[in-house]
Amino acid sequence: MATDQGEVAFVKMRPGVQSLSPEPADHSFIQLGPMLLSGVGERLVPWAGSLEVVVCRYEKVVLFVTKLKKSYLAVTIDRANPEQIIAEVLQALHTLAH
């Protein structure tokens, strides 16, 4: 998670899960990656409506990014059923926000 100013709030893996990339790469990505990916997607907001999530499908994992008030959340998930997992995470975030 990082702020909309690129300040890293935290980079953490779930217990028992090891990152595919080295910690410095994870930290560097979270600093600007979500902001850049979302920024490109937000260029179509006037015509397509608000941007909910950006998805990058890699060979080994699926990454999704969503904006939470003044921060960005980036989560990698297994490639099996990514749509269901993303929907569940977004629903949980929506519930927490209200």
Summarize the structure in words.
The protein is α+β, with helices and mostly antiparallel strands and 98 residues long. 40% of the residues lie in helices and 20% in strands. It contains three helices and four strands. It has a four-stranded antiparallel beta sheet. Strand 2 (54-57) and strand 3 form a beta hairpin. It is globular, with a radius of gyration of 13 Å. The model has no long low-confidence stretch (mean pLDDT 90).
CATH superfamily: Dynein light chain 2a, cytoplasmic
Spans where pLDDT lies below 50 across 5 or more residues: none
| Structural class designation | alpha+beta
CATH class: Alpha Beta
The tally of helices reads 3
Strand order within the widest beta sheet: 1-4-3-2
Number of folding domains?
A: 1
Mean pLDDT: 90
Tell me what portion of residues adopts beta-strand conformation. Answer: 15-25%
CATH topology: Beta-Lactamase
Summarize the amount of helix as a percent range.
25-40%
* Name given to the CATH architecture: 2-Layer Sandwich
The SSE order reads EHHEEEH
In this structure, how is the largest beta sheet organized? Answer: 4 strands, antiparallel
Based on CA inertia axes, which overall geometry fits?
Answer: globular
Distance between the termini: 20 Å
Number of strands: 4
Radius of gyration: 13 Å
